[in-house]
Amino acid sequence: MTRTKRRTGRRHPLAAAALLALGLVFTGGAYAALSTGTAQAEVDPNSQQTIEEGKKLFQANCATCHGLDAQGTGNGPTLIGVGAASVDFQVGTGRMPMQMQGPQAQQKPAQFTDDQVKQLAYFIASLGPGPEIPSDHLASGGGDAANGAELFRINCAMCHNVAGAGGALTEGKFAPPLTNVSGVHIYEAMVTGPQNMPVFNDLNISPEDKRDVITYLKYVQDNRSPGGFELGSLGPVAEGLFIWIFGLGTIVAITVWITAKSN
Questions:
Q1: What is residue 251's predicted lDDT score, i.e. its pLDDT?
Q2: How is the chain split into domains, by residue range?
Q3: What is the mean pLDDT of residues 10-16?
Q4: Superfamily of domain 45-132
Q5: Domain 134-225, CATH class in plain words
Q6: Quick check: do 45-132 and 134-225 share a fold?
Q7: Residue 185 assigned as binding residue
Q8: Which residues contact residue 85 at a Cβ distance below 8 angstroms, ignoring those fewer than 6 apart?
Q9: Residue 12 counted as an annotated binding residue
Q10: 175: which strand partners?
Q11: Which residues contact 188 (CB under 8 A, 6 or more apart)?
């Protein structure tokens, strides 16, 4: 007599774990898709909501020094008319809010997200006209590196070094190195003149020439010294010191060794 195989209704022991894993995969994928979409959304500079969010951030983090209406106090200058580019540079590079008082603001990790930096920048821009955040076309490079190198040597190398390695100034101030600095922040520094840097407006250096300068700096960053040790790209002083200490030291050591052997 053939027995009919009856179903017991039991599930496989791994079925629950498989369903849980499948649910997690779908949930994580949906979250990642939504997060990516949110991250790619740009902050609208003309949105009233952007201005309001920027105002809240400003009053909570910046008003102590710059005043509730950004009119300035004894601890900080007015920000009316500095433009979005100045705020994007100072806050985006972590120089503001200042970590401590000193000859100049030190660069550090940014305290705010990119969106929050833009909200702060557009709030300040709404208070008065000033330099705007540059377009990707101008800040991404892709210009004439040779022309940029000439412009940089004429206008910038006396402080930042011809290779953008930075240099010391007076009274504890310094020109920072320009390695690993984004094209946006380089452009913003040129049009706003932060710290001790002069302002290079469009009459001094045109927007396309600024793009060429950025192109040159990116070329220097991507093509390090092919001849060996670059010694920080600090020029003849560092190179002469290296030769004096190691080169002349080696000659003296060999001389002493030969003299000792001859005796």
A1: 87
A2: 45-132, 134-225
A3: 58
A4: Cytochrome c-like domain (1.10.760.10)
A5: mainly alpha
A6: yes
A7: no
A8: 121, 130, 131, 132, 133, 134, 187, 188, 191, 192
A9: no
A10: 167
A11: 85, 86, 88, 89, 131, 133, 134
